[in-house]
TrEMBL record:
This is Sugar O-acetyltransferase. SUPFAM superfamilies: Trimeric LpxA-like enzymes. GO terms for molecular function: acyltransferase activity. Keywords: Acyltransferase, Transferase. Residues 5-59 form the Maltose/galactoside acetyltransferase domain. Its EC number is 2.3.1.-. It holds the Pfam family Mac. It comes from Bosea massiliensis. InterPro entries: Hexapep, Hexapeptide_acetyltransf, Mac_dom, Trimer_LpxA-like_sf. Belongs to the transferase hexapeptide repeat family. Signal peptide: none annotated.
């Protein structure tokens, strides 16, 4: 029998009220209370704290507080990643952000999903799909990256865009839903 956490990480329906998951979420909440008071701390001091919770934090990675996540332990940041103020990462599935990626303020990475069937929603199950962001990506302020999206290297996601599907390497997308920018 698989645990609810194992189901969650496999992208299957799981129950978020599971005691193991609740303990992991409480650990992340306690960490956020501490982390979100470190605005005056150096990036090196904050990086030490990030490494307490995240799966991986590359050299030179910066996450400006305030920052919010579900668990933290499913987040991986490459070298030189920059997340500006008020980023949200719902990491019920892995979120991997490649080296040198720049993320504007208020960007949300949303791996969590809910059943389309109302009976299953009433039953209290949810699921999630991983998000993978390539290297040297620029994500404009207020953008939303939805469950299961992969963004290729060197892509640009415009401010306020909603990425509902994969974005190819080197492509610029904008709008809701995010679509490749037309040629001028």
């Amino acid at each position: 029998m698989r645990s609810e956490k194992q189901k969650m990480l496999a992208g299957e329906a799981y129950r978020p009220g599971d005691p193991e998951l609740q303990a992991d979420a409480q650990r992340a909440r306690a960490w956020m209370v501490r982390y979100n008071t470190t605005l005056a701390a150096s990036p090196d001091e904050r990086r030490v704290m990030l490494r307490e919770l995240f799966a991986h934090v590359g050299e030179g990675a910066v996450v400006r507080p305030p920052f919010h996540c579900d668990y933290g332990q499913h987040i991986s940041l490459g070298d030189g990643v920059f997340l500006n103020f008020n980023c949200v990462v719902l990491d019920v599935a892995p979120v991997v952000i490649g080296a040198l990626t720049q993320v504007g303020p208020g960007v949300q990475f949303l791996t969590a999903d809910h059943p389309r069937d109302p009976e299953l929603r009433r039953a209290g199950v949810e699921s999630g799909l991983p998000i993978t962001i390539g290297a040297n990506v620029w994500i404009g302020g207020g953008a939303l990256i939805l469950p299961g999206v992969t963004v290729g290297d060197d892509a640009i996601i415009g401010a306020g865009a909603v990425a509902t599907r994969n974005v190819s390497a080197g492509t610029t997308v904008m709008g809701n839903p995010a679509r490749p920018r037309g040629k001028a």
